[in-house]
Design brief:
352 residues; globular; 2 helices; Methylamine Dehydrogenase, Chain H; four-stranded antiparallel beta sheet; 2 domains
Length: 352
Amino acid sequence: MNRPRKDLARAAGVAAAALLALLVAGRLTRSALTPAEPETSATRATATGSTVGQRSPVLATVDVGPGPPGRLAVGAGAVWAVGDAGTVARIDPATDQVAATIRVAGETAGARAVAVGAGAVWVAVASPGVLVRVDPASNRVTATVPLGRPLRDPVGVAVAGGAVWVTCCGQEATARPGGKLLRVDPATLRVTPVVLPREPLGLAADDRQVWISATDGSAVMVDPATSKVVRVDTDQRDGGAAQDVAVGAGAVWLAYPGGGLVARVDPEGPAGGEAVPVDAATILAVGDDLVWVVAGNDQGVVAIDPGIPAVVRGFPLTFVRDVRALVYGSGSLWAAQGSSRVLRVNPSRLEP
């Protein structure tokens, strides 16, 4: 009877030594000692990357499944996430939990974009091509607005100047260069098309201006009061396509992943503007007096100080990477990853 006990003791000692060796080598992280969660590139990075001397900027991780969240919006006291599964997840910033999941389309219809304003949440659905209105007070669909045809990517939605704006349908069937901007009256739900001289990629707006970034690198400005194109900025700075656009911090910001830059444009000044070197910039957001950029092959997040303008800080890739959508609200940055997760990130925990 004594020998088996010795064998058990010896086995326990070997296991303890192996565990200590892993800890010393930094190969065993806290995630390996807790219940497993679905693996993503972000969790792999946390498990394998070094966190010595780094404090995680991630305040919370919210599972918004099913399906990866493709777009985010903030408003009506919540964060809203939509994806290809045809649902909208309402995240309560007070609890960092999904407070409601609202079905706005079939599982294969494709909820492509979301915006909040004019007393509602607005979701663009690719097929059959509709704009869905959700009442944030009841979390129920209250209207479905036909947009005339299926929406072809990229699709954008913004609420500004007393209207809901939808971009879609670049390179129409006639092969004429350009695309469409649709103006939807939130009261009557009347749809008015605005012909664009360029093929749209990104969309951003405030009460004074609507901006569309284009495939040829230009930026198109529409007056929300008249629904007329009033400016086409064709200074491309050899950046290729303008993948995204954001309005805020006293300027219009354009992301040029091919050119490795973000352009700052004065909406009331001459065409062109200052170029900020940013590797593979794809997604933009404005908040907390900074311009936030998804950049690099790892799709991490860096911050531009608009007063300089230049990249000043970023989040460690160990914690924030594989970002597919970005928005600022409720004092935090919200980042959708390529899984069913939305990260709540502390904007003050940036590193040089």
